[in-house]
Amino acid sequence: MSTQATSQPYPIIDLHCDLLVYLTDVPNATLDNIAEIGCALPALTAGNVKLQVMAIYCATAPGSTNYAALQRDMFAQLANDNNCGLHAVTTPAQLQQALHNPNGIGMVAAVENASGFCEEDEPLEDGFKKLEKIIDACGRILYISMTHNDANRFGGGNFSDKGITRDGQMLLDYIHGRQIAIDLSHTSDALAYDILTHIDNERLDVPVIASHSNFRAMWDQRRNLPNELAQEVIRRNGLIGMNFLRSFLNTQDPEALIHHMLHGLNMGAQNALCFGADYFYFADHPDPARFPFYYSEHEHAGTSYNFILEKLKHTLPQQQLEKIAYGNAQQFIERIWQIR
Fold first, then answer.
1. Which of 32, 108, 112, 331 has the greatest count of CB atoms below 10 A from its CB?
2. What's the per-residue H, E or C state across the chain?
3. Which of the four CATH numbers 3.30.1330.10, 3.30.70.360, 3.40.50.720, 3.20.20.140 does domain 12-336 have?
């Protein structure tokens, strides 16, 4: 599979991939295996990705924190390896350097499912201590998703109708003022609304994003944002990262990603829209209906971003293309990371 991208004038910031899961969980996984994962290092390089958010993911199950700790340690290992081509980005100055660095790719960690730092049956205080270990090992984290697909001690995942719990409220209180965003990509609608309500009622300084979600008005899938929630993210100066997975776009329309993006812009997401491709290892996935997971144009980072921007350049002005490619994410990150 070729990773040769055509002319790519823009650096790329992507809000979500599962490279850490792949490297820690798949036997014989390597950083350069494009055949197995679309965010392998050669693909990121060919796609001109300058900042990749690395998700620390786990399902909600016994041992979830041990599973996440392996990914935490993998992030630190990659960051400390001067020869692998990846380096941690933890300050606005480092972000600026990464965007203009012709060699190497910046990365920042995120937590996809708070079960990664807190088991269902352990004291919440112990979970917060594990969260601090993740932050210390990775330098910082950009965002936390309270849930994944299912409900946990913090609230309802996107396969659930459950709202926020007391532990979920306490997690929001804990990250108040910590320069960590809360991610709505895997919440139930009820949990998302409860998160926004608690932030407002308690006047919390917690930025809100949807790191890898599309629009439900375009494709009726629970992983996609209803317009009301998308508009709340926009109103709060957050980010909406476009997800490249076929099942979240439209399983019959290869042009669906473009339609989702134009829908977002029509809703006023000019300063919110960005990329959250969601590349992950799927060869052992049990559901044959999900294959192919990506349309061929989007199957790896080496060509996908360029293909999308080329498609949009006849419709959108250059300034808007720059915002989608990197500008919106850059401004958001610099804003929430500023010294206070």
1. 112
2. CCCCCCCCCCCEEEEEECHHHHHHHCCCCCCCCCCCCCCCHHHHHHCCEEEEEEEEECCCCCCHHHHHHHHHHHHHHHHHCCCCCEEECCCHHHHHHHHHCCCCEEEEEEEECHHHCCCCCCCHHHHHHHHHHHHHHHCCEEEEECCCCCCECCECECCCCCCCCHHHHHHHHHHCCCCCEEECCCECHHHHHHHHHHHHHHCCCCCEEECCCCECCCCCCCCCECHHHHHHHHHCCCCEEECCCHHHCCCCCCCHHHHHHHHHHHCCCCCCEEECCCECCCCCCCCHHHCCCCCHHHCCHHHHHHHHHHHHCCCCCHHHHHHHHHHHHHHHHHHHCCCC
3. 3.20.20.140
